[in-house]
Specification:
Elements (H helix, E strand, L loop, with lengths): L1 E2 L20 H18 L37 H19 L3 H14 L4 H13 L3 H14 L4 H11 L22 H14 L6 E6 L3 E3 L2 E10 L5 H12 L3 E5 L4 E9 L14 H11 L2 E10 L4 E10 L2 H11 L3 E13 L6 E12 L2
């Protein structure tokens, strides 16, 4: 069953499409009209674009995207962000002092939405996890806090105490540099690995990405990964980065020209979410989610599977992979598994603004 989902997002109204979908003739006519209007305002006669007469404008028509500019600097916090963080940190501290840890966790989550590496909130989460004897979560949060606030003696004191009950992990199951909760499945970690790759300058010339069907070996998920670049890929840097992010082996199957065919072993988890929750109002859930997270779903394909499992493939447009992964992490509690099947760089119609056009497969447990 195939359905179209209309989502009122910023670029859906602009009809997000690849460069191949742009009406170049119409775009050039508009540029020529614009040229003539400028010349008339300046007292000259209207001329055709490119004639060499009058003032004119330079007409640069975009081709296929050749890559992305990658800036890993944290975006500046607005005054509204700062107020949001202050309010929810105060509420978190209030709940923490009353030992209402679930509420304190909820409030710190709201802080992380604006500042994922907020040292105070991460420190609080580490202390809560330590008191609950969840040592892995404690290490995850305190290491982020230490990275952000290296001179804080309270953080050092907590780390020394934590080491007495749980050694610092040398091979953490989370993906370092991606500020998300600890993954609960190979699917979550695989998406985090892709996010980490696309945050690195070595990925600047990747124009498309595909994954094959995941397979499982004990506590490992194997992800076939094919990259296509606009110029020869930085193979050594990409392989090294993927090994560190995935926590296990990366095999290069082939690396001819601008393509790189890999097998990435994601360590720490099997493919499926073992504690998946059933969902009843799926369409309403997705509608609300696309309004909360800045993605546009242009098409869906649904297939009924066995044992109340629903297989849905989404075609999604998004500014960046991080936003897509935000969407996937909110879906994940209700998905037995999911996979980013493909990503392709594209232009928004009539502009040089770049987006990812994606295809994602999700297996839901329906009630």
């Amino acid at each position: 069953m195939k359905k179209a989902m209309l989502v009122p997002m910023f670029f859906l109204a602009l009809n997000a499409a690849s460069a191949a979908d742009i009406n170049w003739d119409e775009l050039e006519k508009k540029a020529q009209q614009y040229t003539g209007e400028i010349e008339k305002k300046d007292g000259g006669s209207a001329t055709s674009a490119g004639s060499g007469k009058g003032k004119g404008v330079d007409l640069v028509l975009p081709g296929q995207p050749q890559g992305r500019t990658i800036d890993n600097a944290a975006p500046p916090l607005s005054e509204a962000d700062k107020r949001h963080i202050t309010v929810h940190l105060k509420l978190a501290n209030r709940h923490f002092s009353k030992k209402n840890y679930p509420k304190a966790i909820e409030e710190t989550d709201l802080v992380f939405e604006r500042e994922p590496d907020n040292a105070s909130a991460r420190f609080m989460r580490a202390v809560i996890a330590g008191r609950l004897r969840d040592h892995q979560t404690a290490w995850f949060n305190i290491l982020i806090a230490r990275e952000k606030d290296q001179a804080n003696p309270k953080i050092d004191t907590f780390i020394n105490k934590l080491k007495t009950v749980a050694p610092e992990p040398t091979e953490p199951v989370w993906v370092q540099g991606v500020y998300r909760s600890i993954p609960v499945s190979g699917c979550e970690k695989a998406a985090d690995v892709i996010e980490r790759l696309l945050l690195d300058p070595a990925s600047h010339n990747i124009t498309s990405l595909q994954t094959g069907d995941f397979t499982e070996e004990a506590d490992k998920t194997i992800m076939p990964l094919q990259l296509e670049c606009s110029s020869p890929p930085e193979k050594d840097a990409i392989v090294s980065l993927l090994k560190k992010a995935a926590g296990s082996d990366v095999t290069v199957k082939s690396g001819n020209g601008n393509k790189l065919d890999l097998s990435v072993t994601v360590k720490g988890f099997g493919i499926e979410n073992k504690n998946v929750k059933p969902i009843s109002e799926l369409q309403e859930f997705i509608k609300d989610l696309t309004e909360e997270v800045d993605v546009a779903i242009s098409d869906t394909v649904e297939r009924e599977a066995e044992n109340k499992i629903l297989d849905i493939t989404y075609e999604i447009s998004t500014r960046d992979f991080k936003t897509l992964n935000d969407f996937l992490r909110k879906i994940s509690p209700y998905a037995t598994r999911f996979r980013v099947q493909s990503l392709r760089l594209a232009y928004i119609t009539g502009s040089q603004s770049i987006i990812w056009k994606c295809k994602v497969q999700v297996f839901y447990k329906v009630s």
